[in-house]
Amino acid sequence: MIGIDRTKQIIENEDEGPILDYKEDLILETDGDNAQFVKDVLSLANSGQTAHIIIGIEDGTRKLVGIKTAHKAEQLNDILKVKCDPPLTVEYVEKMILGHTVGVIEISGENPPYIVAVPDKYGGHLSSDPKKPFFIERGMIFVRKYNMNAGASRADLDKIFKVKYVTLQADLELTHEVTSKPSDGLTEADIEFFLVNQGDVVATDIYVWMQFKNVKEIVRCELDCRDVSSINTNIPTIQLVPKAPVIRPVRMQCGKVAVKVGGDVKRIEARVVMGAINMRTKEGSYAISLEKKG
Q1: pLDDT (tens digit, 9 = 90+) per residue, 130-171?
Q2: Percentage above 70 pLDDT, the chain
């Protein structure tokens, strides 16, 4: 289960998507409410990845408002019990963040496709609108399309089985923007690094190691960047370890570094090793022009 810092980071930086849903409140008073909850969970589980529902977040604004209704994991899993095939359970915790209690449901979609397994039809009126009933039926398959839950199409099923039986890979590309200025007879370059995921799945547990060839010194590191020169025989070296995953096609800032190079050097040369838990390691040379990029 994700911790408080990661939960706060998600709320502050990430919009709803294939593995993330925000709810202002979770009301589970009627069979209709429960049927809708089953649909929400199955839609996220069919991503084939670990997904989250975060409760206590205002719809459309990501504003923290806190939960109105407390729940327990046992209650949620009692609702899911015998309604999912294969069987599915979730984790649930409540956390205090910036003075508000939020609920976090973690769903591990390890064995998709998950289908509705009620005997025939299940549901009823919704407590939020008694005139609007909601039902699920045996054999239904739900998926998450962007930030919406929907019934699965043949193409969706093909994708699910591709995820299940083919090892998909993240594919990270490193880009940068740089500005430079004279500094004590040298040139000081401020470099901002970004990661873009061109692969099929979310990139997690990412690391980027960069050893500079023609840098005199590292002046400072910011964000997810740190100076590791001291453990690399004092060769100017940085390590980028982003705390957040990279979702295609988002371009994510992953670090800033200021370095000093000889005044006549037009670009910085570096050796890069980059990888993630679901990505083959990439190695190679990297060049950074001292003219502004982007």
Answers
A1: 889 999 999 999 999 888 999 999 998 888 877 665 567 889
A2: 96
Residues 29 and 127: beta-carbon distance below 8 Å? yes
What single letter denotes the amino acid at residue 259? V
Tell me the domain boundaries of the chain.
Answer: 4-165, 172-289
Structure confidence by residue, pLDDT tens digits, 5-18: 999 999 998 999 99
- Encoded tokens for 264: 């006549």
- Its CATH architecture, for the domain 172-289, is Sandwich (2.60)
The answer to whether the pTM exceeds 0.90 is no
Of residues 88 and 159, which shows the higher confidence score?
88
Number of residues written out for the chain:
294
Which residue in 173, 160, 159, 237 sits closest to 203, CA to CA? 173
26-82 pLDDT, tens digit per residue, is: 999 999 999 999 999 999 999 988 999 999 999 878 899 999 999 999 999 999 999
How many C-beta atoms lie closer than 10 Å to residue 51's C-beta? 23
Q: What is the 3-state secondary structure (H, E, C) of the chain?
A: CCCHHHHHHHHHHCCCECCEEEECCCCCCCHHHHHHHHHHHHHHHCCCCEEEEEECECCCCCCECCCCCCCCHHHHHHHHCCCEECCCCCEEEEEEECCEEEEEEEEECCCCCCEECCCCEEEEEECCEEEEEEEEECCCCEEEECCEEEECCHHHHHHHHHHHHCCCCCCEEEEEEEEEEEECCEEEEEEEEEEEECCCCCECCCEEEEEECCEEEEEEEECCEEECHHHCCCCCEEEECCCCCECCCCEEEEEEEEEEEECCCCEEEEEEEEEECCEEEEEEEEEEECCCCC
CATH class of 4-165: alpha beta
Predicted local confidence at residue 166, as pLDDT: 56
